[in-house]
Each structure stands twice: as C-alpha cells, then as structure tokens.
Amino acid sequence: MGGTGPFGRALAARLRAAGDDVVLGSRDFERAAEAAVELGVEGASNEDAVRGVDLVVLATKADAAVGTARSLPLESPLLSVASELRSEEVRSIAERVAEVVDVAVLAGLHSLAAGKLGAEPPDEDAFVCGDKDARPIALELAQKLVRGRAVDAGPLRSARALEAMTGVLVGINRRYKAHAGLRVTGLH
C-alpha cells in the first residue's frame, strides 16, 4: 500500500529478502508496476494489492493515510506506519484510520527509518500496537525487519506514543547527524 515511497520500497525489499510474497500497491498502477519490477515483487493498484493478503501495510504519507484507508476494499488487518511530526490532533493516525475501516487496525514500525531498512536489518527493536487478535501477524512481520525484537506495545491508543517517538528520533538524528533507533532493555 502506498509502497512506491521510500518507506514502502524499503519495506518491500526487506520482506522480499526475508522470503515473503509482497504486493506493492499504488494509486497509480504504472508507478506500482515500475517499482515492483525494480524490487522483484508484484505490483498492483491499491485496490488489487489488498485482496487476498494476510496483512495490509498502509505506508502512505500521514496526510493521505485516512483517505487511502477509507477507499480500500479491506478484508485483512491493516498496519498503519504513518506518523505526523507536527500535529495538534490528539488521536493517532492509526486511531483515525480505525474509525473509517471495518477491519482490525494496528500501528507500528514508526521508529524504523526507510534508509536503514534498505540495507541489513537494523540493530533495533520494532514496536507494534493495536487489535489484540491481529497483533501476532504484525509482530511476525516486524520481527523480519530488525535484528532486535518485535515488541508488543499494547492497544491501539499506544499509537499516539509510537507516532510521537518518530518526531523525537528525527530530531535526535538531525541534531547529532546520526541514524539512531530504539532498543528496549530488560525484556526477556
């Protein structure tokens, strides 16, 4: 979904490297097909990309997430990876998406940078929150992306904190000219 941007492309490449079947979606089929050939995955329109999949990853820009989710014929759980770096909105993007779709909604992967996914899996943790019954499939996907752990961050309301962490990490990385990520210590 929205997979032709930097994060969607990096995610598709990482999942393909992990041996997963990937369908890269876009509003523009030609754009999806072109990116898919480059990445060695299947390309489709957004509407076709969500059919028959185990998990839909909504990798759009923040301002397009709710509208895109609303327009899709969803049958599978949806994982929103979008973050708003500056917003007065109290609800997370994932919470707003959950209001307009009839499938389980999750949020996660917010602390992972597209540039780091394209190479080797980063040595950091990946966080997922949302629908309790759908969390296992999203955590399984998250574990394929990192050398650290896939961390269950609880219910969908935790997406507010996960999305906010993105802004904190962006600021830290700019300030220190780094590529910092997150690890949780003390988990067994």
Describe this structure in words.
This protein is of the alpha/beta class. 39% of the residues lie in helices and 14% in strands. The protein has one domain: Rossmann fold (3-Layer(aba) Sandwich). It is built from eight helices and seven strands, in the order αβαβαβαβαβαβαβα. The strands form two sheets. Strands 3-4-5-6-7 form a five-stranded mixed β-sheet, with helices on both faces. The model has no long low-confidence stretch (mean pLDDT 93).
Q: Provide the CATH superfamily.
A: NAD(P)-binding Rossmann-like Domain
Number of domains: 1
Q: How much helix is in the residues?
A: 25-40%
CATH top level class name:
Alpha Beta
Order of helices and strands: HEHEHEHEHEHEHEH
Number of strands: 7
Residues in β-strands, percent: 5-15%
Instruction: Supply Rg.
Output: 15 Å
**What spatial order of strands do you see in the largest sheet?**
3-4-5-6-7
Question: Could you outline the blueprint of secondary structure elements for this entry?
Answer:
Layout: H1 6-17, E1 23-26, H2 29-39, E2 42-45, H3 46-49, E3 56-58, H4 62-71, E4 78-80, H5 93-98, E5 105-108, H6 114-117, E6 126-130, H7 135-143, E7 150-152, H8 159-176
Parallel strand pairs: 1-2, 3-4, 4-5, 6-7
Antiparallel strand pairs: 5-6
Features:
39% helix, 8 helices, Rossmann fold
Produce a short descriptive summary.
The chain is α/β, with parallel strands linked by helices and 188 residues long. It contains eight helices and seven strands. Strands 3-4-5-6-7 form a five-stranded mixed β-sheet, with helices on both faces.
